[in-house]
Specification:
By secondary structure, the chain is an alpha+beta fold. It has helices at 28-37, 59-62, 84-87, 109-114, 120-123, 131-136, 141-148, 160-163, 167-178, 184-207; strands spanning 2-8, 14-20, 43-47, 52-53, 69-74, 80-82, 91-92, 95-100, 103-107, 151-155. It has a 5-stranded mixed beta sheet, with helices on one face. A 5-stranded mixed beta sheet has the order 6-10-9-8-7. The chain starts with a strand and ends with a helix.
């Protein structure tokens, strides 16, 4: 099946190209084609009659047919694809970007200066992927939701889920996978070790 896609590039040039798609193919491939032509900018696919299409739709679900024309409309408020080389350029206090779970955040100076751990603890990871470091330190749900407000895009090669996700949601998912549930036996075993160490420390101090 042949679908024509019309893309208006940032330069103003209009790209109209025919794309061959099997019936079972999802529209995500059209979305990727359009965003590639738009230099990584996110867009929405719209039919000639103004119907908004979703990238998870198959051809039959979308109502498209052989010869249909789809227009890629740039979403000015949407996140964009960011190359790692671009991320690495933003590593100062006044221009600080970090990546968390495939999402890219632009952190304002005010946030850095008000961070409980100090600005330096964030700045040492500026311009890099700080996912592992972020997850290794306890953050409240409020802190994770605050991070969501500074998302500006996603890393090149990010999964379809990550492109539209939030740091707070991904962090919860990561944490749940990384930390398996503690059994009751584990709990009491660890509690016993803690109490034993505390008692030992008390006795040593008493004998001094």
């Amino acid at each position: 099946m042949s679908i024509s896609i019309s893309v208006v590039r940032p330069s103003g040039a209009v790209l109209l190209e025919s794309v061959e798609l099997p019936q079972w193919k999802r529209l995500g491939c059209l979305q990727e084609f359009a965003e590639e032509a738009l230099d990584g900018q996110c867009c929405r696919l719209v039919t000639a009659d103004g119907k908004m299409l979703q990238e998870i739709m198959t051809i039959p679900e979308s109502g498209l047919h052989d010869g249909s024309v789809v227009t890629a409309v740039v979403d000015a408020t949407a996140r964009r694809r960011i190359l790692r080389s671009e991320l690495e350029e933003h590593k100062s206090e006044s221009d600080c970007w970090i990546a968390l779970n495939e999402l890219v955040l632009a952190l304002p100076k005010e946030l850095l200066l008000s961070h409980p751990g100090g600005a330096d603890i964030i700045l040492q990871f500026a311009g890099t992927d700080a996912s592992a470091e972020f997850e290794s330190i306890y953050h409240t749900q409020h802190a994770k939701q605050l991070a969501d407000e500074f998302i500006i895009g996603f890393l090149d090669g990010a999964s379809a889920v990550s492109k539209h996700s939030l740091v707070s949601k991904q962090s919860d998912s990561f944490s749940n996978e990384a930390l398996p549930p503690m059994s009751l036996l584990d709990f009491f075993f660890r509690r016993a070790i803690f109490v034993g160490l505390a008692a030992l420390a008390f006795l040593q101090m008493r004998n001094k």
